[in-house]
């Protein structure tokens, strides 16, 4: 865990403290929620051994609007976390069956979302980085794409080939993928720019990256019941800055409602499609954090309208899918 660090996105050293969050070691024992208890054990046994409590500062970068907390876990900390978790639970999927209605809908939505931007064809090479057992690639594989997964989960679905646990483990480092999917991954990693740069080297010349992250800065700061699962919190501006720093050009972005892991937690997600780019503009756009934490009435109405419209479109698509 590091206390003093510059912004991992834009490199600036201008943090604005936004809130404090306090955690106690004894809470790991006191809770009857196994998920929470396990994360607090990681915090106090792996990341801050010997401590009985910790106070974290949620802070926002005044330059690019990226939000994280301090002290911040490093790459070695997150690796230790996943090694610990892999001995306890099924990473990336929990106890939800891959063929449950919930997971089939998620897979269908991912397929439709990427197919519209990058038509899935026979032989297309698709990598889902951090995609658990590869369950979300089901319909992409059905279309004849070659599907690969990189994840700590070592029980891949039959339609994917697992290449390792992390970028460093990939057995075919000269691999080139037409489509790389990063769905709800970037918020978990200690060095998002470095991961994106590594994945950029694996993109085919006309390849595309699809990234989706939860939008946890809409009208409030992240609640952080525990600080072990999500390390990074993005606005559209700071996600665009992240992509730009890593050498990508954002082609399209959107903000949609999505159903997070059951039981039925409705959240907002940011989605973007990107391509590698040799030529990128200098600097970063100004922070849009305040606009999302304290949106104007117009912006609130626009987001409500956009998410409602997306919800209607997706429910129509689900109905169409279910009648096929
Ligand atoms: Zn920054």
UniProtKB/TrEMBL annotation:
Under the heading Pfam families, the entry gives:
Methyltransf_23
Q: Does the keyword Transferase apply?
A: yes
Q: Domain of life, per the record?
A: Bacteria
Listed GO biological process terms: methylation
Q: Which UniProt keywords apply?
A: Methyltransferase, Transferase
A GO molecular-function annotation = methyltransferase activity
Q: What is this protein called?
A: Methyltransferase type 11
* Organism, scientific name: Syntrophobacter fumaroxidans (strain DSM 10017 / MPOB)
């Amino acid at each position: 865990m590091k206390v003093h660090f510059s912004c991992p996105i834009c490199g600036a050293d201008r943090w604005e403290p936004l809130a404090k969050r306090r955690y106690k070691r004894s809470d790991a024992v006191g809770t009857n929620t196994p998920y929470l208890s396990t994360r607090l054990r990681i915090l106090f046994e792996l990341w801050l051994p010997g401590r009985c409590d910790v106070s974290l500062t949620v802070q926002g970068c005044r330059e690019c609007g990226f939000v994280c907390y301090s002290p911040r876990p490093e790459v070695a900390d997150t690796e230790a976390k996943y090694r610990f978790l892999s001995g306890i639970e099924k990473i990336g999927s929990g106890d939800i069956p891959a063929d449950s209605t919930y997971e089939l809908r998620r897979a269908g939505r991912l397929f439709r979302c990427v197919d519209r931007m990058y038509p899935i064809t026979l032989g297309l090479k698709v990598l889902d980085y951090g995609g658990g057992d590869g369950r979300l690639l089901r319909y992409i594989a059905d279309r004849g794409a070659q599907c690969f997964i990189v994840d700590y989960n070592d029980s891949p679905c039959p339609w994917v080939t697992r290449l390792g646990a992390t970028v460093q483990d990939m057995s075919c480092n000269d691999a080139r993928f037409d489509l790389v999917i990063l769905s709800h991954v970037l918020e978990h990693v200690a060095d998002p720019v470095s991961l994106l740069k590594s994945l950029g080297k694996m993109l085919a010349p006309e390849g595309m990256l699809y990234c989706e992250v939860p939008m946890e800065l809409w009208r409030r700061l992240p609640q952080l019941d525990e600080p072990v699962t999500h390390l990074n919190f993005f606005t559209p501006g700071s996600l665009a800055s992240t992509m730009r720093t890593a050498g990508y050009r954002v082609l399209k972005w959107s903000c949609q409602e999505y159903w997070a892991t059951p039981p039925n937690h409705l959240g907002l997600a940011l989605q973007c499609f990107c391509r590698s780019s040799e030529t990128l503009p200098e600097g970063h756009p100004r922070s849009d954090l305040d606009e999302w934490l304290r949106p104007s009435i117009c912006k609130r109405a626009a987001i409500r309208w956009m998410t409602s419209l997306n919800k209607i479109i997706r429910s129509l698509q689900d109905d169409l899918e279910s009648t096929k």
